[in-house]
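Long-time lurker, first post. I've been practising inverse folding by hand and with some scripts of my own, and I keep getting stuck on stretches where the structure tokens seem ambiguous. Below is the full token string for one chain I'm working on. Before anyone asks, I'm not after the true native sequence, just a reasonable design that respects the backbone. If someone could post their per-position residues I'd love to compare against what I wrote down in my notebook.
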């Protein structure tokens, strides 16, 4: 038997924070690829430290629904799961290429395949592009458009920016959008000045966040000038400094994220049959959460 455990941050304050995790888990559960699919959270129940003990399978694939490698993926999750012998160096990662480490959970008699975060997987690049297609309602969006990938950014975790830059560069290499830029909330170049960095009349802004919350639904729209008060909402597209800003909301709400979670498990050795094809088919026409 094999189980999939999706671990995410969750929130005591934002009841919608966990919704993408449950949505993607439900999608994967429907494929029948795993005998069990469970969700675990840091700030909600079921908690990281207990979730492994809720599965009967001896082989467990743990996929962190986080954007970057760092404090949570390297310290908190392995500690709370009680992964024996864990060391971040086992990933042999430079900050964007963590894959999988197989470890034991002695007190639960489980073999755990601990995967890198979804946010650094190459398949996330396709989800960002899909998010741009969703918000513009145009499967061919690109020519005539700029695309801004927005991250939190923080001096406390240099890997936070690495994930943003990684996907920005991959999309730039597609030569699909007229302009590409990585922007941040807490470091330069800042998303507040989005119109300073693009000449395109139309700019799609995609936040590389797992869930819609305080940052994506309050800070970023106000900082960009889409609205003076997030409580009154904003237009999509909105006009800022004469440019049309297509604000997409958190990338983690895009249904295709379920594909990235599966890709992580497959890379770690999970046998999922045709589940990837099923998810791609189901999510191709499904609206993102909140749309």
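-- Answer (accepted) --
I ran through it position by position. Result:
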């Amino acid at each position: 038997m094999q189980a999939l455990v999706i671990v995410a941050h969750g929130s005591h304050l934002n009841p919608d924070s966990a919704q993408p995790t449950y949505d993607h888990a439900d999608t994967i559960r429907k494929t029948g690829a795993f005998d069990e699919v469970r969700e675990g959270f840091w700030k909600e129940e079921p908690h990281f430290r207990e979730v492994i003990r809720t599965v009967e399978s001896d082989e467990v694939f743990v996929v962190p629904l986080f954007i970057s490698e760092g404090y949570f993926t390297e310290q908190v999750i392995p500690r709370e799961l009680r992964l024996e012998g864990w060391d971040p160096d086992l990933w042999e990662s430079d900050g964007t290429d963590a894959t999988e480490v197989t470890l034991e959970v002695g007190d639960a008699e489980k073999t755990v395949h601990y995967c890198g975060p979804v946010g650094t997987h190459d398949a996330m690049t396709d989800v960002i592009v899909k998010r741009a297609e969703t918000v513009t309602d145009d499967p061919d969006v690109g020519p005539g458009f700029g695309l801004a990938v927005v991250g939190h950014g923080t001096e406390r975790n240099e890997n936070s920016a690495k994930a943003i830059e990684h996907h920005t560069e991959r999309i730039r290499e597609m030569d699909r959008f007229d302009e590409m830029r990585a922007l941040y909330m807490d470091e330069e170049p800042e998303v507040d000045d989005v119109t300073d960095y693009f000449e395109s009349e139309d700019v799609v802004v995609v936040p590389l966040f797992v869930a819609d919350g305080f940052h994506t639904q309050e800070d970023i729209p106000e900082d960009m000038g889409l609205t003076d008060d997030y409580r009154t909402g904003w237009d999509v597209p909105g006009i800022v400094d004469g440019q049309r800003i297509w604000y997409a909301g958190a990338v983690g709400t895009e249904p295709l994220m379920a594909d990235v979670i599966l890709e992580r498990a497959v890379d770690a050795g999970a046998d999922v049959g045709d589940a990837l094809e099923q998810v791609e088919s189901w999510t191709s026409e499904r609206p993102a959460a909140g749309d």
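A couple of notes from the structure itself: The longest strand covers residues 2-8. Residues 123-253 form a domain with the Rossmann fold fold (CATH 3.40.50.1400). Happy to go over any region you disagree with.
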